[in-house]
Every structure is written in C-alpha cells, then in structure tokens.
Design brief:
The chain is an alpha+beta fold. It is 41% helix and 27% strand. This is AsnC family transcriptional regulator.
Length: 255
Amino acid sequence: MDELNRKILLMLLKDYNSSQRFIAKKLGISPPAVNYRIDKLLSDGIIRKISLYINPNFYGKYHGYVAFKNYKNWNGEYIAKFECLERTTIYEIESKSIEDLKSKINSMSEELGTPEMIYIPTQYPYSPSNFDFKLVSIMKDDPKIESIQISEKIKVSSKTVRRHIRYLINKNFMRLIPVVDLNKAGISMFAIFTKNVEIARKLFSEINFREISDNKAGIFVNIANDMEEIKRYTDKMREFDKEAELMVTYSYDFS
C-alpha cells in the first residue's frame, strides 16, 4: 500500500466522517482521487467493514475494558475485541451499572483466568431524546448512509442532521470505525495503557486512532508504520511513565 493510501487510512481511522474534500485538501489531491482510493480500499478488503460504535453511555449504560491471556476465547457478548501479540485479548464490555460490570468481569475471569488489565473509566450516562434514538437507529442499520437520506427519513433538514451527528461524535457517544485488515494494509496498531494521560495525548496526537481516558488513566490506541516506530513511541512514553503497558494488536473487531 502506498504512502497516500496509508495517510487516507489513518485519517479515516481518526474520523471516518471526514469529508473527501477535507482529506483531499490535507493531502494535496483531488476529491475524486480520494473517492477512488477509498473505494479501492473497500473493494480490496483492506477496509473490511464500517461499524457504527455506540458508546454504552448513550443508552444510560456503563462500559469498561478488560484484558486476558488468550488461552481461550470469550464467547459471550462484547462491544469490541482487540487481539494482541502479547497473547492477550482486550475486550470492551457493557452493563447497566458499575456493579454489574464488575460482576461480568468476575464471570469472565472464571472462564478466562486472572485479568491482565481492568480499566473502568469515570463516565456519565446520557439520557437520549427521541430524536437521538431515531438518528442512531437509522445509522445502525446503514452506517454509511448520507445525511440527506437521514433527513428525508426523519423529516428534518440535512443541516440539523449533520450538526447533531457532529454533536454526538464530539461527546464521544458515537463514531464510525473502519475495521481494517492490518496485514493487508501493512500498518501496525498498538495500545498504551498509562496513568499519564496528558503526556500520552500530546505524544500520540499525530497517530492516535482512539482514546478512552479520564483524569486517572487512559488507553490510547494508535497506528504506526512498523514495529520500529512502535518501539520509538513506547520508549518515549516510558520516559514519563515507566509502568505504561504496551499491547500490539494484530486483529480487531466491533460487534
């Protein structure tokens, strides 16, 4: 995969809602060229699918992250799954309360063993409106649906739809996430769990794909060109947090 496609892929991972015009301007190519390259990434199976991630807080629920040695697979429900080279699998799970979330982790532990990591961020469940529900329901059925099509379905202006989608994204309640075949793409994904959130946010700003954090700790999922780049970023992060945990991902999925 050439360098332009790598850059397009990183921009889509950071924000799949980025317009082709925006991407084209950033990369100095035409919007039709961007459109062609994205279509090719999809048709070649480099982008396997587009998932609409809904933060459980949107539904008034809670979520957390737990990592286990991958001697066994968890066959129960999960939101996201990251399989790592360290023989570790990270699961994002949800429940109706923090206590239920801890109970679910205990149930997983009975089957999968002692967790390698548990992270339940500070979170504030949301009370969605009827409009929120309608919007999200339509997008779940078709994550790539255009704003104008949504507006026709719920009888509001496309401007209102775009503004509300951006609001929900900015609040981290939803996000379009491309599920990429990392091997075909020739890129590397890695996660860092650290208690030094501010430093991590600055250090990974150019390569960060996903951040889950509060004022105590955070998980930063990043994209790199190769293992050498991962090592360079990890070494730099450990100058500020010697206990920062590294997990190199070879496959991931969202349910």
